[in-house]
Write a structure and sequence with these properties.
Order of helices and strands: HEHEEHEHEEHE
Number of strands: 7
Structural class: alpha/beta
Strand order of the largest sheet: 3-2-1-4-6-5-7
Radius of gyration: 17 Å
Number of helices: 5
Largest sheet: 7 strands, mixed
CATH topology: Spore Coat Polysaccharide Biosynthesis Protein SpsA, Chain A
Helix content: 25-40%
Strand content: 15-25%
Length: about 210
């Protein structure tokens, strides 16, 4: 199987608008700083995904036609789609179903993890040669990446998103389907001030922290 032509990475992203992006980081970075980190994470995620050589779809809110996206100068090689209306699980399901109709393997990622590198994404894709699904958990109980070769609605339905149970519930659903799961090393999302210690060196140099004890 030629992974480059048969694998699609879907990046779920919201526009990093000041005052709306990374609001839980605002006590440490302020509104502008939190938005800048959100923008940096989005650009980093797209660069790492594109470096794999796989097809990369940016599934966004607001829709790709919104002028805000033109301000980010994102790479031309990205494919774009709009998130459907509804809760996160439904949005992820619809995007996954659409991609699965065209690709043999689908990898879902977000834009919160600076340590999700090209190499780690490629490693995850390779796991799907031997396993039905692959997951990179997040240290907070969610997941950084979920990959699969087929899709079922209950992988995304009736899940309390943004809680510490997301990865565990998803693993239970995969087990109930009698699918195999390759579970890779957990990584850190950047959501709370305490998470800032997991940013790459230099990422915070330009910001004046409101609370230095993160």
């Amino acid at each position: 199987m030629n992974q480059n032509s048969s694998t699609c990475i879907i990046i779920f992203a919201k526009f990093p608008a000041e005052g709306k992006a990374k609001t839980r980081l605002q006590p440490a970075l302020g509104m502008a700083g939190a938005a800048r980190i959100a923008r940096k994470l989005l650009l980093h995620s797209t660069r790492q995904a594109l470096a794999t050589g796989f097809t990369v779809e940016l599934c966004v809110s607001p829709a790709p036609s919104d002028p805000c996206w033109q301000t980010l100068n994102l790479p031309k090689s990205l494919h774009w789609s709009a998130q459907v209306d509804g809760e996160l699980g439904l949005r992820m399901l619809i995007a996954s179903q659409q991609a699965s109709s065209k690709f043999e393997q689908v990898l879902l990622i977000g834009t919160d993890c600076p340590s999700l590198t090209e190499t780690r994404i490629q490693d995850a894709a390779q796991q799907l040669e031997y396993s039905d699904t692959v997951m990179i958990p997040a240290s907070d109980g969610g997941y950084v990446l979920l990959g699969f070769k087929q899709i079922r609605a209950n992988l995304f339905s009736d899940i309390e998103w943004s809680t510490a149970s997301v990865a565990a519930v998803t693993r239970q659903r995969i087990k109930a389907l009698d699918w195999t799961l390759a579970l890779l090393e957990p990584l850190h999302d950047i959501d709370e001030p305490d998470d800032l210690q997991h940013l790459p060196i230099g990422w915070l140099d330009e910001y004046q922290l409101n609370n230095s004890e993160f």
